[in-house]
């Protein structure tokens, strides 16, 4: 596992050195925190703890988008020739793909934690136990969507196509998840899309923890848009989390298998 650790350490170091990337993430997340936590707060009066409700959505979306977008780094490595040196080294592609997924996940968690700390000064109230649970959900989200990101990057083969694909994935997933706009406020014809969206369930369990809904009844959770009644089938936050874990395992195996067999000799990176 030393090869995995080396790839992880190298990618983390690159992230820390890339000040524009770090600042850009913070600025965008702060922008969403302001827009959705202050401007829209007045329209969320029907919800319990509207500030926590909105802030929690911004935090988990930061983790989701970061873990997905960080996968484009591997395309840059291949284009620059750095990955060629790794591929000829006596390590397996399985180790390389695991290192890439873990680095995307750790970076995404770090960005989520930065936003969480900032959110403490903007009204987020959380105790140590629930904060630890938040980190656990961030880790699951990071691995799951980091795996999806690496899978898409391997299929896309160049960063221009990858950016198009991730945009197609990110936009509908984000706004149909209930992270910014509660699912209870969305029109009924969107419900099928909401129910098949994996982000819906990662947002639900994250919000369930952040808002400390442990003692809520299932009816109240459904009313708050944290649990879902799909034609009599009740999807609790915990069941939704199991769904996310299953998706994470499937895509982790898929991305490792796809990366192990991929031919990156003609990969090109789009530059602005």
Low-confidence parts, pLDDT < 50 over ≥5 residues? none
Q: Rg to the nearest angstrom?
A: 19 Å
Q: In which range does the helix fraction lie?
A: over 70%
Beta-strand portion reads under 5%
**How far is it from the N-terminal to the C-terminal residue, by CA?**
36 Å
DSSP E strands, number? 2
Q: Main beta sheet, described?
A: 2 strands, antiparallel
Shape: globular
Any overview of this molecule?
This protein is mostly helical and 272 residues long. The protein is built from twelve helices and two strands, in the order αααααααααααββα. The chain has a two-stranded antiparallel ribbon with strand order 1-2. β1 (228-230) and β2 form a beta hairpin.
Secondary structure: elements and pairs:
Blueprint: H1 2-17, H2 19-39, H3 50-69, H4 73-80, H5 82-87, H6 93-120, H7 128-156, H8 159-175, H9 191-196, H10 198-210, H11 218-223, E1 228-230, E2 233-235, H12 237-261
Antiparallel strand pairs: 1-2
What attributes does this structure have?
12 helices, mainly alpha, 272 residues, two-stranded antiparallel ribbon
How would you summarize what this structure contains?
This protein is mainly α. It has helices at residues 2-17, 19-39, 50-69, 73-80, 82-87, 93-120, 128-156, 159-175, 191-196, 198-210, 218-223, 237-261; strands at 228-230, 233-235.
């Amino acid at each position: 596992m030393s090869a995995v650790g080396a790839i992880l350490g190298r990618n983390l170091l690159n992230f820390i050195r890339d000040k524009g990337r770090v600042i850009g993430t913070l600025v965008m997340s702060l922008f969403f925190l302001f827009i959705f936590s202050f401007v829209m707060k007045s329209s969320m009066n029907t919800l319990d703890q509207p500030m926590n409700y909105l802030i929690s959505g911004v935090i988990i979306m930061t983790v989701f988008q970061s873990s997905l977008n960080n996968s484009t780094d591997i395309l840059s490595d291949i284009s620059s020739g750095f990955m060629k040196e790794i591929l000829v080294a006596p390590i397996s592609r399985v180790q390389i793909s695991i290192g890439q997924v873990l680095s995307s996940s750790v970076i995404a968690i770090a960005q989520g934690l930065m936003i969480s700390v900032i959110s403490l000064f903007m009204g987020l109230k959380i105790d140590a136990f629930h904060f630890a649970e938040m980190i656990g959900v961030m880790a699951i989200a990071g691995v799951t969507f980091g795996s999806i990101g690496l899978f898409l990057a391997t299929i896309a083969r160049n960063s221009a196509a990858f950016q198009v694909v991730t945009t197609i994935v990110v936009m509908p997933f984000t706004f149909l998840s209930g992270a910014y706009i509660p699912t209870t406020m969305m029109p009924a014809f969107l419900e099928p899309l909401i129910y098949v969206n994996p982000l819906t369930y990662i947002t639900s369990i994250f919000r369930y923890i952040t808002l400390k809904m442990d003692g809520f009844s299932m009816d109240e959770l459904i009313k708050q848009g944290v649990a879902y009644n799909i034609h009599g089938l009740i999807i609790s936050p915990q069941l939704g989390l199991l769904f996310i874990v299953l998706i994470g395992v499937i895509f982790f195996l898929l991305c490792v298998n796809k990366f192990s067999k991929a031919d990156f000799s003609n990969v090109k990176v789009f530059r602005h």
